[in-house]
Amino acid sequence: MEPLLQRLNRSIDRFLGKRIGNGLRFGGRTGMNTVHLYSEIDGEQRAASFAYYVLFSIFPLCALILTTGSAFFGTTDVVETIKGFLPISAQEQKFIWENVHRLEQARGGVSAISVAILLWSSLRFFQALVRGVNRAWHTVEIPWWQVPLKNLLMLLIIGSALFVGLLIPAVLQAVRNILIGAEQWVLHYYPQFNLGLASMALDLSRYLLGGLVLFYCFSLLYMLAPRRRVYFRQVWLAAVIVTLALQACQIAFVNYLPHLLNYGIYGAVGGLMLLLFWVYISGIVIILGGCLCVALDKEWNGRVEVIPAS
């Protein structure tokens, strides 16, 4: 087997060049280590557990974000921002938002007690991801009392990401409106300034913001979930790959999956079933990303220290 691999490596170097050959071998080793680690930590079961927790947490989580976000922004703006991250149509989301508004009305509006109850109900949303990423690093299992704190930290990260997702598009839109409103003044004093190109760049920035928000969330998840010190340099590449993979999956879900699978058999909860399937696929991709962080760190810095779980 070894001579065969050596001959294969020499053939790759001869036809593609040594640098490309080294890159292919690096990618192959990293991919194999990622898949092996994903299988070792039962990544598929953890992704299914993530979808299970979402089933019970999605309504209180959306209600919590809507309740707290409405204190700073308009309710419509908050809802539209959340909808942008859900890979299902507005019609399929109708069931979810009807139940969220019903839950809000049952809570009697905004109060400290209602926020606390919604917060506790939505904390388990991140439990499977936090435990999965932590186990990928082979660190000691997180104690039971630290898990809610980690989940709360993830919830705060999501909240800050949505805050950025609400604030920056509004600022960019305001800048665009100011430039358009002051078109005559800008062209008079700065005739070389391309107003159309600037407006297009601002619009493009608003669309790219969704990817940056996801990258921010995954970077912090991969850095903070493990029970060990993890640096940004160890996670940024995996966070970029996971962000691009999820955005590609989202495009496929929105444009192709509804035509291939008939979720109408679930009746009124068809949209929820489609969302749970999306969450399951997302969980697989995110946990694979955590395994990729470990595999890349092993390639760059040597073997990761293994600490058995207690």
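Above is the first protein from milestone M3; the second protein from the same milestone is given next.
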Amino acid sequence: MSAFGFWDFSFHEGFDMSNYRLFPCALFSTLLLMCGCVSDVKNESPDAVVSTGGVGPKGIIRHIIFASDPQYPWSKDKKNTEDSLGALPHQQSQDVLLQSRSSVNEVSTEDLIRNQYSAIQKWRAGAMGGIGNNPVIINGDMTAFGHGEERAFLYGTLDSILSTNWYFGLGNHDYKNNIDSCENNGCARDSMEDLAGRMGGNRMDYSVNESGFIHTTKKYSGSFAYFKDFGRVRYIQLNLDPSYTNWFYSSGVWTTNEFDILSPVENGWLENLLIQARDNGTFVIIGMHDAEEWTRTSDPRTQAILTKFRKLLKEYDVSAIFAGHFHTAAGIYPSPYEGVPVFLSGSATEETFLITDIDESSRKISVWLVRNNTPETAQHLGVFPLKQSVKTPPTDEYDNAGSWGTWGPSARCPSGLYINAFDVKGEKWQGDDDDTAVNAIVMYCHDDVGLRSKEGGWGTFSGYRKCPADQAIVGFQLKMEPRQGDGDDTAVDSVRFVCEGGQSIAAAYDTSYGVWKKTYRCPAGMVAIGFETRVEDYQGDDDDKYDDDTALNGMRMKCGSKP
């Protein structure tokens, strides 16, 4: 990875790194890396990171520290060369006005690593719960080239300083750059084996098949992504990026190692993991090395993976993405993922990293940017929601939809609330004129916050209905009229809701037509936290034909864990 994130260089074993130089990147790339910041951030009083006492502010149960790009031995000279490139100075994000770092000229490449991770270790040791409660995650580019002496120093130093509860992924400098660019692919091979050997116990997506007798062949296959649960927060490490695939081998006298690297999106591993997290009521954050550069390609396969990845992020409510790759772009980064915030942690040469405060009870995550390896002066980047995915069964699972109309927007209770009441809007019988029956359903969260989806335009609300005590709604049943052929169609004619205690509460509005369909219930342990409705739009008033309006045609309930 380059500090600009646009040019990548890799070399064979034995290359004299003192002769290594970077070349200017495109001005567009320079400006892109430093532009903008996310606008939909809720700023709250920052009171967590500045104190390292044993007890955190109310609600915060742990911190997660994110770093990236130790990239040993990426030197101060290379760092300074990169900073001086181009005809124009870097355009820094307004959130990340990095201060002058003259100190980087006074330390060795080894001390750049020691200084950063010693600062991290000192801070988390004094934070609530200590080292065991506050994990450190390093998002890739562990070394510059994957050489044996680089990996030996880097992992030995991290083991010595951090000791335990630290995790990492691989970046382009660890394996991608080194395939066919290092003798016998030894750099990529050993980096992959470091990852599998050190992180493989965290339910990693890979398998190993061994064959042969005198000469053994070990075939590794999988995405090598893995996950780790910290309380109710699931951290998923995707390594370089979700699209990266490759195959390479390294052959020795007694052993040949083959690596078939797959995409966790293409092979289904990521979606299965997100489904599991949703069903367990777990919040999800994702880590990778490069969160943005891979999204710019025009390659059809990569674009298909990107489309699927964005769909998964939205469908399963991923809360945030943490990454590295761009050394000088630490902080909030313009997200290419349609509303999922992206945070970059910088590099050891830039002396930047991130601290997050995890508040599961309020479903919030606070993010802080640390500069100059000094947590006490960290900048508060904002408070962001910890989102929880909900289950929306397909329509035919509970026979709840008519034949007409389109689904409206999903409506969901604010964080920490659930649905416990409702009201129904229905049109009274019209005699020989067109009947529409139920036109709208309004759901209420338990502090009387009203939720609305798509609605028809006729009728009046029939009356507020509520589950007893603090019980949530956990199911519903629709009364529906089948197609009437040339007759007057109405679709949904009434509705009942099921409370946690098993009580069924009927709407005040009802009709003499229609039949009750199957009752849908949330999965065990879940309650209603949102819904959406299907409504047929107004059919107009054409004197030359009979315009049959049906209004409400169906409902879907969104279920999640009760706060």
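Note on the second protein: DSSP finds seven helices and 30 strands in the chain.
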